[in-house]
């Protein structure tokens, strides 16, 4: 910060030239400001440097605001031009693109602009119809915001926790890219930049023994964001992140527990006492239903149906997007799952829409209690065990698919198995519940 600090009239002063990219917005040329600290009182400038840190931070925030405002105004003008062009029945395109189109279309655009009424509106019509408004610069730092805006309709049914899970991997991929490539317009990003990013990931994989799949997820997220923005804004960019996946990725699969381990260890009295009541009962409810953890924690008083001839739960979206269309299903309650539902008739408010928090808590506790016998075992393994238990008694494929919420690969006829029919199969695999839940 010493480069911005100078002595003047016995006081320390902050002096900094306005950056070139802000020169049109901040006409001062050089910013000068007194720290109000006398040189005689601070001969080495230690206090003055701390003050210039503060002044510089405020100044840079001011410049960022100017640039953000300029970008927002440019985006507003561009969006207005696109809407205006559509109102005349034409698509919006840059001037260079329009110039390459058939003469008849160009003439039609000019005539439409000349016919704009009132006449005072002709200038905006010309801008809209002849591509006079350039696309606002989209920089890497604003890439995700632009992508999220374009995806608004696609993610409208996600819950808050699902939105967080949707956002975070993309933001993380972009942050990793920005650690390798300086912030720039996405139109200036090159294949060489993308290859540098791939090489950076390869070095990390070798040095830190990281999973190749993690790198490929980053590359995939960046590729999708670029393709989406490129298509939406007709930028004509080359697919800089295309065909960059690192070979050698292993597709890991979660393990299932042995049914005997589930019965004798996990359902043993006191085995899960280190968990809070809700977390423990989530496990118990999964045992005889095969529900996903995220499905259990989002059950409510309306979807836990105990006053029915066949007590059951209704797996429904309820403010969130379900994993598949087949995930909406009704599952009878038997054994320890019925006991858990009776103990939590209003659901699991502590973990509602917090499936990741629940899984992290349970996995940590089960690992400490030696209830995860292998590296691939997790809370989710209970769901895989449920499917294995049904398979072991030769349950029909259609019955397994409907209980698991999987797609059944045959045409759908009739209403499908009743709750009573489903319960018959579940009672055949029911384990002995612990004496208390």
Could you please describe the fold and organization of this structure?
α1 packs across α4 (122-129). β4 and β5 (312-315) form a beta hairpin. This protein folds into 3 domains: 2-69, no CATH class; 140-233; 259-429, hpI Integrase, Chain A, CATH 1.10.443. The protein starts with a strand and ends in an 8-residue tail after the last helix. Strands 1-2-3 form a 3-stranded antiparallel β-sheet, covered by helices on one side. The chain has a 3-stranded antiparallel β-sheet with strand order 4-5-6. The protein has helices spanning 46-87, 95-99, 103-114, 122-129, 143-150, 160-178, 191-208, 212-233, 259-266, 277-287, 293-297, 335-343, 355-368, 381-392, 397-404, 419-429; strands at residues 5-8, 11-17, 30-38, 304-305, 312-315, 329-332. With 437 residues, it is mainly α. It contains 16 helices and 6 strands. Residues 257-427 form the Tyr recombinase domain. One of its GO terms (biological process) is DNA integration.
Biggest beta sheet attributes: 3 strands, antiparallel
Q: Mean pLDDT, rounded to whole units? A: 86
Label the CATH architecture of the largest domain. Answer: Orthogonal Bundle
Low-confidence stretches: none
Question: Strand pairing plus helix content: what structural class?
Answer: mainly alpha
Assembly form of the protein: single chain
Straight-line distance between termini: 62 Å
Q: Any idea of the CATH class of the largest domain? A: Mainly Alpha
- Can you tell me the number of structural domains? 3
Specify the helix fraction band.
40-55%
């Amino acid at each position: 910060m010493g480069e911005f600090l100078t002595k003047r009239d016995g006081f320390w002063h902050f002096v900094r030239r306005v950056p070139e990219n802000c020169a049109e917005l901040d006409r001062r040329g050089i910013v000068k400001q007194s720290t109000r600290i006398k040189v005689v009182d601070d001969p080495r400038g230690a206090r003055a440097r701390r003050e210039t840190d503060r002044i510089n931070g405020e100044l840079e925030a001011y410049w960022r605001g100017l640039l953000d405002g300029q970008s927002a105004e440019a985006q507003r003008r561009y969006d207005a031009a696109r809407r205006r062009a559509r109102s005349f029945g034409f698509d919006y395109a840059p001037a260079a693109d329009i110039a390459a189109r058939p003469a008849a279309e160009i003439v039609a655009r000019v005539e439409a602009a000349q016919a704009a009424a009132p006449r005072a509106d002709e200038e905006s019509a010309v801008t809209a119809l002849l591509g006079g408004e350039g696309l606002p610069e989209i920089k890497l730092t604003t890439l995700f915001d632009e992508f999220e805006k374009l995806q608004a309709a696609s993610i409208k049914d996600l819950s808050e926790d699902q939105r967080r899970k949707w956002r975070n991997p993309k933001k993380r991929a972009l942050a990793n890219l920005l650690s390798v490539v300086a912030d720039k317009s996405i139109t200036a990003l090159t294949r060489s930049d993308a290859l540098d990013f791939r090489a950076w990931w390869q070095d990390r994989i070798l040095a830190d023994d990281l999973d190749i799949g993690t790198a490929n997820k980053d590359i995939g997220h960046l590729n999708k964001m670029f393709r989406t923005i490129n298509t939406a804004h007709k930028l004509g960019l080359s697919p800089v992140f295309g065909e960059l996946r690192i070979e050698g990725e292993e597709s890991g699969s979660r393990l299932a527990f042995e049914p005997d381990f589930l019965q004798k260890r996990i359902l043993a009295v006191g085995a899960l006492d280190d968990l809070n009541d809700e977390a423990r009962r989530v496990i118990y409810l999964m045992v005889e239903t095969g529900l996903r953890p995220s499905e259990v924690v989002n059950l409510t008083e309306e979807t836990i149906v105990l006053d029915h001839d066949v007590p059951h739960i209704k797996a429904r979206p309820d403010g969130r997007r379900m994993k598949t269309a087949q995930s909406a299903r009704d599952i009878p309650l038997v054994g320890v799952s019925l006991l858990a539902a009776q103990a939590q008739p209003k659901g699991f408010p502590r973990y509602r829409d917090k499936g990741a928090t629940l899984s992290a808590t349970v996995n940590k506790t089960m690992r400490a209690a030696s209830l995860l016998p292998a590296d691939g075992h997790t809370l989710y393994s209970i769901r895989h065990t449920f499917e294995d238990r049904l398979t072991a008694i030769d349950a029909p494929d259609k019955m397994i698919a409907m209980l698991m919420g999987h797609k059944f690969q045959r045409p759908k006829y009739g209403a499908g198995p009743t709750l009573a029919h489903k319960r018959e199969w579940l009672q055949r695999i029911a384990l002995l519940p612990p004496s208390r839940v």
